Amino acid sequence: MNNRFITIMLMSAAVISAGARQRYGTGLDSLGSREPAYTIFTAVGEDPSHEVSVSWAGAVDAPGQYVRYTTADDTAWMRGITVPGTSVRCNVYDSIFSKLADNTDVYERHVFDKYGATLSGLQPSTDYIYTVSAPAPDGGTWTSAPRRLRTAPGAGSSWRAAVIGDYHHYSPLWSRIDHAMGMINTLDSVAGGVDWILSTGDQCAWGGSYNYWTELSEQPEYKNYMWAPVQGNHDHMNRQNGRTDDYFRYAWHLPANGYEGQEGVCYWFKYGDVLFLMLNNEAMRNKETLDRAREWIERVVTANPSRYIVAVEHYEWIIATDGSDSQLERFADLFTRLGVDLAISGNNHAYLRTYPLNNTSVAAPGEPATVYVVASSSDNGRGRALKDLVGHQDVIAQRWSEGPHTVGGLVLDVNPERMTLTLYDRTGTAVDTVTVPARR
Question: What is the pTM of this model?
Answer without folding.
Answer: 0.94
